[in-house]
Structure formats: C-alpha cells, structure tokens
Amino acid sequence: MGRYRVRVDTGNFVFAASANQVQLWLVGHHSEAKLGLWFHPARGQMEDFEVDLKEDLGPLLFVKLQKIHLLLKDAWFCNHITVWVSEKNMEEEQEILFPCYRWVQGDGIICLFSDLLIFHSMVLPSSWNTWRKGLPLTVDAMTEKDLPLDMRFHEDKKIDFVGAELQGIESSGSYDLSLLLPERVCESWKDDDFFGYQFLNGANPTMLRRSTSLPTRLVIPPGAEELQTQLERKLQVGCLFEADFSLLDGIQPNVIQGERQYLAAPLVMFKMEPDGKLLPMVIQLQPPCSGSPVPPLFLPSDPSLTWLLAKIWVKNSDLQLHELQAHLLKTHLMAEVFAVATMRCLSGMHPIFKLLVPHFRYTMEINTRARTSLISEGGIFDQVTNTGGGGHLDILRRATACLTYRSLCLPNDLADRGLLGIPSALYVHDVLRLWDIIFSRYVQGIVHLHYSGDKDVQDDSELQAWCREITEIGLGGAQDRGFPVSFKSRAELCHFLTMCIFTSSAQHSAVSQGQQDWYTWVPNAPDTMRQPPPTTKDVTLEMVMATMPKVYQSCLQIAMTWLLSRVQPNRVLLGYPKEEYFSGPESKAVLSRFQEDLDILEREIVARNEGLDLPYEYLLPSRIENSITI
C-alpha cells in the first residue's frame, strides 16, 4: 500500500526512442503490481507517472518492463527507471534507481534490479574468440555487425566515425602542418634533446629505462675506449638510460606493392643531463649476429646526415612498438579482455560490474573494426608499415608472451624501469598522481562500501570466477607472468581494478593522443623504411630520401594518425560517466570526491605547463576519455 512515482529515462541519441508501447510492473518482497501504464518512449525524454496501489508490495526488489509491438519492431534504449516510494509508515519518500543502459529488443520481459539489493546472478551473453593464436582472446565477432547491440556504437558515434574516416582519407594530402603540430616538432625534430624528450614525454613513453649495467648486445669496437669510459661513468652515477628494440629482431619485413621494406632492431643509450635533458650517446641499429661483422655504432660526432639517419631508424622502430605493443596490446586488447570477462562472469547487479562497465563503452566495436581494417590482411598496416604483411602479428605474439601484470600496474612498471624521481619526466609524474586518485578516491571508496573485509572478497564466487576468467582464459594462462587467479584481500582487488580502469582510460590517453602531434611530421617517425639500415657512415641526402616512405604512404600515415588521435565530439571524460549505475548517497559521494580530485589535478597540470617550453597535456583529466573509443 502506498504511492509510487515512476520516472522512465530514455537515451538522447539517434534512434533511442521507440514507436512501440511499454508496460511496467513493480515487484516487491510480498507481491507484484502491473501498472496501468502504456507509453511510447521518446528520445531524450523522461516519462513521469504516479500511481496509488492498494496491495502491499513490501520492499521493492525489481522493475519488470515489456515492449509491446504491433506492426513495427524497433529497439528502445532505456537509461534507467527511478521509483519514489511513499508509504504511511515512512518519514520521507524513498528513491530507488533501477539502471538499464541497454537496448530493449523483442517483446520479452526484462527485469531491472536496484543496486541496493544483494548480488543476483544475471550474466550477459558474450563469448570468446581466438582471432590469432598467441594473442589475448577477443570478443566473438568477425565484424562489428556480429556484436550484441549493447556493445555497438550508438548511431551518433557511428555517423561521426564513418564521416571521420572519409574526411581523413580525402584530406590526407592537404594538411597544414603549422596548424596541426606544435611548431617545435617541425622545427626541432633533428635536435638531440628533442629526440630524447620524446622518450620521456612523447607519443610512446614506454620504452625508456634506467640502465643497471651495460647491455650485452652493445659491443664496443677497438678504438672506442673513450665511449666505453663515458658510458661507465654515467652508469656509476645513475644517469645512463637505454631504449632497446630487440623485440623486432628477426621479424620479417613487409613487401609493399612488390617493393621490399626494411626493419631494424636498434638500441639507444642516453645520458641524463643536470638540466633534465635526455641526450643520445650512441645508437646501434642491429644486434650482433654470429658470423656477421660487428654492427657499427653511430655517434653524435658522426657526420650530421649519418647521425640523423640513425635517429630516423630508431624512431621508425619506436613507432612500430608503440602502435603494436604499447597502444594496441597493452590498452585496446587488454581492455577487451577485461570487458568480455566482465560480461561473462559478473551479473548486472554486481558492484564491480557497475564500477567497470562505463570504462568499456564502445571498446568492443572499435577493436573489432581495428581487426577488420587496421591490422587485418590487406589492412592499413599491410599497406604502409614495414612490419605489415604478418610481421606485425609476430610482434604482437612476442609482446603478449612477455606481457606481465607489473607492466600494466604503472607505479610498479615505472619503478622497475628506474624512472621515478626524474623532474623532466612529466608523463611519470602525471601517471603517479592519476593512479593514486583512481585508486584511493574512486576504486577503494566503492570497494569498501560493498566489501566489509577481506573475507567478503574471498567468498564472492562471481568475483573470483571473473579473476580466473581473465588470467586463465582471456590471457591464455598468464599466472606465470604475475597475473592473479584469485583475490585474497580488498587491497589486491583494489590494485587490480585500478589497473583495469587506468588501462582503459588514462594509459590509453597517454599513448593515443600524441600520435597526431608526433607522427604527422613523417620524418620524425616514418611508418616504413625502403632501404636497409646503413652499415657505414657514408650517408648522403639521396640515401636518406630513398629510405623514407613514398608520398602515398606518408599521406596514409598522416590520415591515420589524425583519425586515431582526434578529439571525439561525443566523448565521455574520466570520472563523468553518462550511466548512473550506483544510486546510494555513499556511492555518489565517492564519485563526487573523485571528480574533485581530478579537478585539482587538472589545475596543477595547467599551472605546471604554463612554465614549460613544451607543455605535456596528454594526461590532463579534461582530455582523458572514460573508455577506449578510438
């Protein structure tokens, strides 16, 4: 008995409405009531109803809804249903939220549960697929059309994405570089300090590490004792760094339109100057090979074109590992593993489902599209990169085989690489601040609301199955690389969840947004090389130009970097999800504190950047999407 106010909220994008009628039921602990309501959901509208019920429903458990079609069958996107309960024995009205955030199709009855209830098994259908052996499993979809409707782009996103593809291809030869890039990229790409800066704060800040010994592959030839002394001196004072691209060694280069391409596996040794500049000391383009001459070492004192060509080779290798390892594997594919496991193992009522699912928005479709157009046979990688034609898949397999849990937990990864405490490492600073905010303000807050202690975590069978699904199934048995198969404490769970969210938001921002800035000026990071790496120091301008990509390859590179890093017009920022899965005041307070800390960090980074010659902006909270959508 009592009065119930009901509000039905429909999505605000194209085709979210429905011409069909909708029927509602309220289901309580004692009984259920079929509401005499028939309405047509309208796009972006909230339908409000008020009913007085004579029967005693008891505490509300869930809402049932059914879409009734006559002639036309069309889907309806329901955001959520809110019910306000007012009974005689209540001092004040009770508000209960029933999240939906999915397409309602057919004429079956759907049950929406409140987040105030105990977990209830309601796993959404989703299956695994082996796209290529040796890689993480993917969602079972050959094309985006095979995905369930709830995993697809909404119509406005689809229109924007397809339009952007056409715009990028049509205008790829007419870019005004002075408008697209910081002037410094065009003007300073040849400078050693600018070359070094990119390994700290550029498009790919994941390759650099502090040296703990001289690499065994770095063979110092007779007569280069001074170089050996300089390297050892920098090593002793902790100022020697390296970027090793050995993962590329032995990869078969691509053949593009009948023309063989070439690939190197370089090693670069850097020194950190007192002013924070990272300067290259020596470049080795290929590792030593038994039975072959010792590979030459290229130095800053070499002829300018010789030294420049060596750096160009390094940046070509850096682009390959950036796109395949740091970007595709360690953000896109990992986020997809988390997403599929979440859909398979966690019910829609589970608090961890509600915490994570906003961070998977559009990820399944963007990854499926990448597998059909970017890294597929005949795709963009095959057309323009020297690792295409199958080499890129071998690189992905190698990178997957050495992928560790610690490498995805950024504070651990940065510590392992010896990059903590470097004032000029802006990426490192921003990563640590963001990780701490996500962990302490957001994840810990939600987890502690729903798990009173470690035993609650240990006894949550859905959660433990989700953990095993990721490590043993999605990653093909990755426990030997540090991935957990169970959670024994709230602390372990919070650490893992922070990794999932950070991977799907901030880290993707760090390795995605810089593509346009650093790769549109093709000489700074060419996508392919058309001549073999130099084996002598006799380099001419003609040799450099003959090594660089052809015009059409450069145009495709420009178009793709624009497409893959442009600002999304319908983006959802980190900490500001459109979906409202948690309705309780405590959960809302956690999200509010998270947003406050993100705003504080935003102001800190803006203030810091004002004093910098080259601002680092990729981890500004106002530029980080809540999920991987591009």
From TrEMBL:
It comes from the Eukaryota. This is Arachidonate 15-lipoxygenase type B. Binds 1 Fe cation per subunit. Residues 181-630 form the Lipoxygenase domain. Its cofactor is Fe cation. InterPro entries: LipOase, LipOase_C, LipOase_C_sf, LipOase_CS, LipOase_mml, PLAT/LH2_dom, PLAT/LH2_dom_sf. GO terms for biological process: lipid oxidation. Pathway: Lipid metabolism. Keywords: Calcium, Cytoplasm, Dioxygenase, Iron, Lipid metabolism, Metal-binding, Oxidoreductase. Fe cation binds at H327, H332, H508, I630. It comes from Monodelphis domestica.
